[in-house]
Design goal:
The chain is of the alpha/beta class and about 575 residues long. The protein contains 21 helices and 26 strands. The strands form five sheets. Strands 8-17-18-19-20-21-22-23 form an eight-stranded parallel sheet. Helix 19 (about 490-495) runs antiparallel to helix 20 (about 515-520). The relative contact order is 0.12.
Length: about 575
C-alpha cells in the first residue's frame, strides 16, 4: 500500500477523532471584561494612524481598554459601567499644554487681571480700587498689560510706556508691581522701587534694563532681568508670611491652575521652569492625590553647581497612573520681542540702538546642558529672536557632536522658536531639535510684530510653522499660560487660520493643517516629553485622558472653531470636568 502523505494523514486522524467524539460545540472567544466607563455614539479621533476614527471608547481603571464601533464596544457595557452618550460629538486625546507656567497660572487668578485694559488710565483705576481694600504697606500685584494693545500711547511716555506718576498718586503707601503680558517686563511704582533698593544710581543688571527718563529717573519699567531686583523684595515679603501661610498660598495656586486646565480640556501640562522647592511641593501634592492634571516639569536653576548636585535625585519618569514627571531642565537665552528683549541678528526697527538682550551667558547654558546630558535630562532652551535660535542650534549641535549622540534620541527643544532666519529652519529637522511653539502667540503678536522687525523681516522670520513642518521638524503646541489664556481651541484656531486678534491673516501660508494642529497638541506634545508611550493618542493601554468637544473642530467652518466648548474632560478614566452651561 502506498504511503499516505503526512499532511493528509493528519487530516484523516482529525476526522476520525471528530467522528468518534460526536459533534463539537463552536469555540467562542471569552467575553470581554466589562468596562468602568464607555463613551459611545460619537466621532472618536484616536490620533493613532493604525486605529483612525471610531465611534466609541471603553476604559478600565486609568487606561483605555478598547476603541471601535458602537457594536463592538457594546459588549463591554455591564451593569455598573458608566456610559457617556456622545451624540455625535468629537472626542480626542486630552489636550497637552506644551509650554506653560503652572504655579504662575494659579497666581494670575489671585492678582489683578490687566489683559483687558485698553489704556494706561484704566490700569491705574484698577490699582486704585485694589488699594482701597488694602492696608498700608500691602503689595498690589497685577499681570497682563501690553502697551501695543492700548488704544493710544500714554502721555508722557518713554519708549511707549508711561512714567509711574499715576501709580504713585493712587498708591503712595503700597508697593505696586504689574507684570507685562509676556512676563518679560514689569512696571513698578516708587514704593516698589524703594523696596527693591532701586534709585538713580542703581546700575542695570546683566540681561536687564531699568528704563529711565532723560534726566536719569527710573520710569518704573523694568525689562527682563531688572525685574529680579523687585522680585527679590517680594520674596522677602513672602518669607515673612511664615512657611505654613506660604505653602497654603502655593497650594491654592496649584488648585486654581488645575481647575483652569480642566475647564479647557487640558489633561497634561508641561511646566516650563520650576524650582526645586516648587517640585518638592508638587511631589507632596502628588503623594496626597491632590494633583488633578498630569505635570511634566522642567527644572529651573541658574546655579549650575546646585544643578549638578541635585539634578539626579529629582529625575522622575512616568510610573503607573503618574501625575508628576521630572526629566528636563529649562534655560533662557533671550527675552521677548514685545519687551524688546528678543536677541536679534540685526537691530530692532523701532529701537535701532538695540538688538535685544542676552539673559543667560552662553557658556552657562552650555555647562548646564552638559550636566543635563550626564544625568539623562532633556534640555529645553527659551529662544525667541533669530540670533537666539541660531546660537542655541549651534550650542546643541556642538555638544552632541562632542558627545557622539543624536538629537532624535535626546529630543532637546527650543521653547518658542518664534523668529528664525530661513537658513536655520532646515537645521531643526536635520538635527532633531523640537520646536515648542505657541499658536496663539501669532494671533496676539502679529499686529505689532512688523513694527518691531519691519515688514520684510517679519514675513521672512516670524512663526514659520509650515517651513518647519516641511523640514521634518516636530512641533509641540501650547499657550505659555498665563501669558495667554490656557485655551487649546483658541491656539488650534490660530494654528490653522493664522488669523490675528484684529481679524486679519498673519502670513497665512505658514498655517498648519487641522490634523497637524491636533497632533501638535496631543501625540507630538507627548513625544516631546518622552511620554508618547502613555499619552497623546487613544490607543488601548495608554492613559484614559480624553476631551469631548461640543463641535467638530476638524470639519467646522474655520470661523466657527472658536465657538467650540469643552463638554467633558477625563483624566485617568475619571470625569474631572463637565460643562454645565450648554
Amino acid at each position: 500500500m502506498p504511503a499516505v502523505p503526512t499532511r493528509l494523514a493528519a487530516v484523516l486522524l482529525a476526522a476520525f477523532a471528530s467522528a468518534a467524539c460526536g459533534p463539537q460545540p463552536a469555540t467562542e472567544a471569552p467575553a470581554p471584561e466589562f468596562a468602568d466607563l464607555v463613551l459611545r455614539g460619537g466621532k472618536v479621533v484616536t490620533v493613532d494612524p493604525a486605529l483612525g476614527t471610531v465611534q466609541a471608547i471603553a476604559v478600565n481603571g486609568y487606561r483605555i481598554a478598547a476603541v471601535g464601533d458602537d457594536a463592538a464596544i457594546a459588549a463591554r457595557i455591564g451593569p455598573h459601567t458608566e456610559v457617556i452618550e456622545l451624540r455625535g460629538r468629537l472626542a480626542l486625546p486630552g489636550f497637552i499644554e506644551g509650554h506653560g507656567h503652572f504655579l504662575a497660572l494659579g497666581r494670575a487668578q489671585q492678582i489683578l487681571d490687566l489683559a483687558g485694559a485698553t489704556s494706561w488710565d484704566a490700569i491705574v483705576e484698577q490699582v486704585a480700587v485694589a488699594v482701597d481694600g488694602a492696608e498700608a504697606g500691602d503689595w498690589v500685584f497685577g499681570r497682563g498689560w501690553h502697551q501695543d494693545k492700548w488704544l493710544q500711547p500714554p502721555q508722557p511716555n518713554v519708549e511707549g510706556v508711561p512714567l509711574n506718576d499715576g501709580l504713585n498718586a493712587v498708591a503712595p503707601d503700597n508697593p505696586v508691581f504689574l507684570g507685562h503680558a509676556s512676563g518679560h517686563a514689569a512696571f513698578a511704582n516708587d514704593a516698589a522701587l524703594a523696596a527693591a533698593g532701586i534709585d538713580g544710581q542703581t546700575p542695570d543688571p546683566a540681561g536687564g534694563t531699568i528704563v529711565r527718563t532723560a534726566d536719569g529717573r527710573a520710569t518704573g519699567l523694568l525689562r527682563e532681568n531688572a525685574q529680579d531686583l523687585v522680585e527679590a523684595a517680594i520674596a522677602r515679603q513672602e518669607a515673612g508670611l511664615g512657611p505654613e501661610a506660604f505653602e497654603a498660598m502655593q497650594r491654592q495656586r496649584v488648585q486654581l491652575a488645575g481647575e483652569q486646565a480642566l475647564r479647557f480640556g487640558v489633561t497634561s501640562f508641561q511646566d516650563a521652569g520650576a524650582s526645586f522647592a516648587d517640585i518638592d511641593l508638587l511631589r507632596r501634592l502628588e503623594d496626597e492625590g491632590a494633583l488633578t492634571v498630569r505635570l511634566y516639569v522642567m527644572v529651573r536653576s541658574d546655579d549650575n553647581a546646585v544643578l549638578a548636585e541635585r539634578l539626579a535625585s529629582y529625575r522622575m519618569t512616568a510610573q503607573g497612573n503618574d501625575f508628576l514627571t521630572v526629566r528636563a531642565i529649562k534655560r533662557q537665552i533671550d527675552g521677548a520681542l514685545g519687551a524688546h528683549g528678543a536677541w536679534l541678528l540685526a537691530p530692532y526697527s523701532d529701537l535701532p540702538n538695540s538688538s535685544g538682550l542676552v539673559l543667560e551667558p552662553l557658556e552657562e547654558i552650555e555647562a548646564a546642558a552638559r550636566i543635563a546630558l550626564q544625568h539623562g535630562f532633556q534640555v529645553n532652551t527659551h529662544a525667541i529672536g533669530d540670533r537666539a535660535n541660531r546660537e542655541v542650534l549651534d550650542l546643541y549641535e556642538r555638544i552632541w557632536s562632542q558627545a557622539d549622540v543624536t538629537g532624535d534620541d535626546l529630543r532637546w527643544r527650543i521653547e518658542h522658536a518664534q523668529h528664525i532666519d530661513p537658513e536655520d529652519i532646515p537645521r531643526f529637522g536635520q538635527l532633531g531639535v523640537i520646536a515648542a511653539v505657541q499658536g496663539i502667540h501669532a494671533a496676539s503678536d502679529g499686529p505689532w510684530i512688523p513694527a518691531r522687525l519691519g515688514p520684510e523681516r517679519a514675513e521672512r522670520t516670524s512663526y514659520r510653522w509650515r517651513d518647519l513642518l516641511d523640514a521634518d521638524t516636530i512641533l509641540n503646541n501650547g499657550t505659555d499660560a498665563p501669558v495667554e489664556p490656557i485655551d487649546p481651541i483658541a491656539s488650534f484656531h490660530a494654528s490653522v487660520s493664522r488669523r490675528m486678534n484684529n481679524g486679519r491673516p498673519f502670513f497665512p501660508s505658514q498655517a498648519m493643517t487641522r490634523m497637524e494642529a491636533i497632533r501638535s497638541y496631543t501625540l507630538d506634545n507627548a513625544r516631546s516629553a518622552f511620554e508618547d508611550h502613555v499619552k497623546g493618542s487613544l490607543t488601548p493601554g495608554k492613559y484614559a485622558d480624553i476631551v469631548v468637544l461640543s463641535e467638530d473642530i476638524l470639519t467646522a467652518p474655520e470661523s466657527d472653531i472658536p465657538n467650540a466648548k469643552v463638554d467633558y474632560t477625563i483624566v485617568g478614566g475619571k470625569v474631572r470636568h463637565v460643562r454645565l452651561d450648554g
